[in-house]
Design goal:
- This protein is an alpha/beta fold.
- It contains 17 helices and 11 strands.
- The strands form 2 sheets. Strands 8-9-7-10-6-11 form a 6-stranded mixed sheet, sandwiched between helices.
- A hairpin with a 4-residue loop joins strand 3 and strand 4.
- Helix 9 crosses helix 12 and helix 12 packs antiparallel against helix 14.
- The longest helix is centred in the first third of the chain and has 22 residues.
- It is globular and about 65 Å long.
Length: 480
């Protein structure tokens, strides 16, 4: 039997199902980057031995349900939520997708084309924020399984055949990599019977590859930032900053560092320093956030998807696109405020307000039956229940504990950054000339205190050298 997570809630009319496989793009063989994600798409968005994909969609429609596939570096999830009156029919469809895939040539061709179009048309074409984040991975993890996008590379996808997908499925979709999750108002005996279906999978598959340590860029005493300027047609400049960090949710330091991260920049909220100072005070852009683990947004919410845990994590600052004339001011601003946090620690008032905020906000991460199930599965994988652990630790956490982990894990002397811009040569010259990067305001009336702080930000040191600032055309990214 596979591992299981069952969360009964008898009064809930909804039931969530999740099939979590410890399989991801870190399993992609060299030269066939994208194979894991493509295999999951062929399963989740293809036909079964019993039904064509069109017939699968016809069967799902009256159930008011759909099967979602979520893939990342170390995980693939097939999940859906359905009213309990339609549970049996939906469970049959989901099990069929995973246990008896059709591997139809037309499903393979369609999903591979979708993956290729995502790279060429969406990622390179019209999603500059995600483009910057993916390009940042190539800088942070050169030669590492995390370097390429989960969806693959242009050459990798072109090299994959339907036989490769069949073989990958046979060797990786096994019980030892699976967790079956059921939550909500399901009837007695259902969860056990549903999990028992997956005894049809092989007991064990290919061994999970061991990840190498994140690469060390600067081995000497002189540290510098590595900046990649991605040149493409863009009306605004998207900026991503980051570097690998040596902790995950299983580490006790993760929880005080979560307070520091939230104080610096909670995703799509106005409690973070970066959001308040860069957007709120200056109107620089839409949003400015910080993360201590990979963040994949759940739809249009403010929350991350559960079940995208990675075995290695990174610190990241995300500056959503900024007007080109203010891009370097924004970069210096993010560095300035982060360094101020490292130098001075978290203010007592900021610590208390962030601690209270997280104590309530964390409950929203598990606000529905599907998300509760997802986080319970994450707890089984990581050994720590994120919400329970955070709330328990917040009660007795001290400012000094947060300051200690800030000094231990945060630094901006040796980092990677990506700027997506249409004037790469000009940006490079400005980065290297050592001159200030003043803020340009569209309107008058900015407070004197902000203008005074601008003088410090515009000269905030950026540790760059001519060799550490490169330009690449967007068409060259993610080729191999």
């Amino acid at each position: 039997m596979p591992r299981t997570v069952f969360i009964p809630s008898p009064n809930n009319p909804l039931v969530a199902l999740r099939l979590y496989f410890e399989v991801g793009s870190s399993d992609d063989p060299p030269g066939k980057e994208g194979l894991a994600a493509l295999t999951s798409d062929v399963l989740g968005e293809g036909g079964t031995q019993k039904r064509t994909y069109a017939e699968v969609l016809d069967a799902l429609y009256p159930l008011a349900a759909h099967i979602q596939v979520i893939g990342d570096k170390d995980s693939l999830v097939f999940e859906g939520t359905v009213h309990r009156d339609n549970l049996a029919a939906f469970a049959d469809l989901l099990a069929e997708q995973v246990l008896t895939p059709r591997f139809a040539p037309e499903d393979f061709a369609r999903t591979r084309q979708n993956a290729s179009d995502y790279l060429a048309k969406t990622l390179r074409g019209n999603n500059d924020e995600e483009l910057g984040k993916q390009a940042l991975s190539t800088l942070m993890y050169p030669g590492h399984p995390y370097a390429h996008p989960t969806s693959g590379t242009v050459a990798g996808l072109a090299a994959i055949t339907v036989d490769d997908v069949r073989a990958f499925y046979a060797s990786h979709f096994a019980r030892d990599r699976l967790i079956v999750g059921v939550a909500g108002g399901y009837p007695a005996g259902f969860a056990e019977a549903f999990a028992a279906r997956f005894a049809a999978l092989p007991a064990a598959g290919a061994p999970r590859p061991k990840l190498p340590a994140p690469p060390v860029r600067n081995k000497g005493d002189k540290k510098h930032a590595e900046i990649l300027l991605v040149e493409k047609d863009a009306r605004a400049d998207a900026i991503s900053i980051g570097y690998p960090i040596s902790l995950t949710r299983s580490d006790p330091d993760f929880y005080p560092l979560t307070v520091a991260r939230s104080y610096l920049g909670e995703h799509r909220t106005f409690n973070g320093v970066l959001m308040n100072r860069l957007r709120g005070d200056r109107g620089l852009n839409y949003g400015d956030y910080a993360y201590i683990e990979s963040f994949i947004q759940d739809g249009w919410s403010t929350f991350p998807h559960p079940n995208v845990l990675r075995r290695q994590q990174h610190f990241e600052i995300w500056l959503r696109p900024v007007p080109p004339q203010n891009a370097l001011f924004a970069l210096r601003g993010a560095v300035y405020y982060t360094r101020q946090l490292i130098k001075n620690g978290i203010p007592e008032a900021g610590f208390e307000s962030t601690r209270r905020f997280l104590g309530n906000y964390a409950d929203l991460w598990t606000q529905d039956v599907s998300r509760r199930l997802g986080y319970a599965i994450d707890a089984k994988v990581s050994g720590k229940d994120l919400v329970h652990e955070l709330k328990a630790r917040l009660a007795s956490m001290k400012k000094a504990e947060v300051d200690r982990v800030i000094r231990k894990y945060f630094q901006l002397d040796d980092f990677s950054a990506v700027i997506v811009t249409d004037k790469a040569a000009e940006v490079r010259a400005r980065l290297l000339d050592g001159k200030p990067s003043p803020m340009t305001y569209d309107t008058a009336g900015t407070a004197a205190a902000i203008l005074e702080e601008d003088k410090h930000i515009e000269v905030e040191p950026l540790p760059v050298t001519p060799d550490s600032v490169r330009i690449v055309r967007v068409e060259q990214l993610f080729e191999r």
